[in-house]
UniProtKB/TrEMBL annotation:
GO biological process, one term: methylation
Pfam families: Methyltransf_33 (PF10017)
InterPro entries: EgtD_Methyltrsf_superfamily, MeTrfase_dom, MeTrfase_EgtD-like, SAM-dependent_MTases_sf
Protein name, as recorded: Dimethylhistidine N-methyltransferase
GO molecular function, one term: methyltransferase activity
Keyword Transmembrane helix: no
Coiled coil location: none
Native organism: Anseongella ginsenosidimutans
Domain Histidine-specific methyltransferase SAM-dependent stretches: 6-312
SUPFAM superfamilies: S-adenosyl-L-methionine-dependent methyltransferases (SSF53335)
Keyword annotations of the record: Methyltransferase, Transferase
């Protein structure tokens, strides 16, 4: 709670203003994100689902050819919609492994623990509720088998480029030489397709962004007027950054009782909300190399809109 308030205050005091997107995900935010993922414009989930539903045997072959024995760790497991294809395949191949789903939501881990071993008989599951890096470390303490880490859904795209390298280097530091990372990237494509994914006609992404203001109103007794902010995503085809902003439609002052502070907004002043970084194939390769991995291959969907890259931990 204290961390949340401090980060919100830091963002609203900054120039230009920003709010951290990791706080989008309260109960309403989770529900909106589920709806976004099944909206016609948000292609990312469908593309990655296609990769896992069609290419799982090839992915499993690759994992097995590199590591005869391993455990699987999924960072931000959610409902395991895509990884369950791989889990089924590995169980079907009679491989002995433990699946460690990692999620920040205790509810998600509880759900998975109850439902997944039933849906995939023979699956050994040990849920880990907490932060990615700490839980990855925990999985290593629990078993000394080599690790295959899944980080799907283009979640890596929600980090700024300078943070991405740091995060990947931190993941690598918790792994051993030969361990594998399977990481989902949204690829650069027609800018109109990207922009409409973040500006769906039903207004789900708009509501998803505005919901953070609503959350701040509720949790910190603030008085953001949700009708006085406009959702405005932009895509830069050179850098591949898709950025969402909320634009203040008028001069206004927002009060936050919990902090005893108020914030002034100029007409058309932007609040930066979220980055969803898109990558070219060359940028993905370069990222692997600079963060200490050896790129093995990238599995793509039929439209080449999304890629799941498999990297091996290189010499430390
Ligand atoms: C979770 N993450 C990969 C999503 C994305 O595409 O950046 C979050 C999202 N934001 C708006 N729509 C979806």
């Amino acid at each position: 709670m204290k961390g949340f308030l401090n980060e919100i205050l830091r963002g609203l005091r900054a120039c230009p203003k920003y709010l951290p997107a990791k706080y989008f995900y309260d109960e309403t935010g989770d529900r909106l994100f589920q709806q976004i993922m099944s909206s016609p414009e948000y292609y990312l989930t469908r593309c990655e689902y296609e990769i896992f539903s069609l290419k799982t045997p090839a992915i499993a072959d690759l994992l097995q050819s590199h590591l005869p024995l391993f455990d699987l760790v999924e960072l931000g497991a959610g409902d395991c919609l895509k990884s369950r294809f791989l889990l089924k395949e590995l169980v079907h191949r009679n491989l002995s492994f433990t699946f460690y789903p990692v999620d920040i939501s205790a509810n998600v881990i509880e759900q998975l623990t109850q439902t997944l071993p039933e849906a995939i008989p023979g699956l050994k599951l040990h849920g880990l509720n907490g932060e990615y890096l700490a839980m990855l470390e925990k999985a290593r303490q629990l078993s000394d088998r080599p690790k295959v880490v899944l980080f799907l859904g283009a979640n890596i795209g929600n980090l700024e480029k300078d943070q991405t390298g740091i995060f990947l280097a931190q993941i690598r530091a918790t792994l051993k030489k030969g361990d594998l990372l399977c990481i989902g990237f949204d690829l650069k494509k027609d800018p109109d397709i990207i922009l409409s994914a973040y500006n769906d006609k039903a207004g789900l992404t708009r509501a998803f962004n505005l919901n953070l203001l609503k959350r701040i109103n509720r949790e910190f007794e603030a008085d953001f007027d949700l009708t006085a902010f406009k959702h405005f995503p932009v895509y830069d085809p050179v850098s591949g950054a898709c950025r969402s902003f909320l634009i203040s439609l008028k001069q206004q002052r927002v009060n936050m009782k919990t902090a005893g502070e108020s914030f002034c907004f100029e007409p058309y002043e932007p609040v930066f909300m979220e980055i969803s970084q898109k990558y070219s194939r060359d940028e993905i390769l370069a990222l692997a190399l600079t963060s200490g991995f050896r790129p093995l291959t990238t599995f793509c969907d039929s439209k080449h809109w999304f890629g799941d890259a498999i990297w091996e931990v290189d010499d430390k």
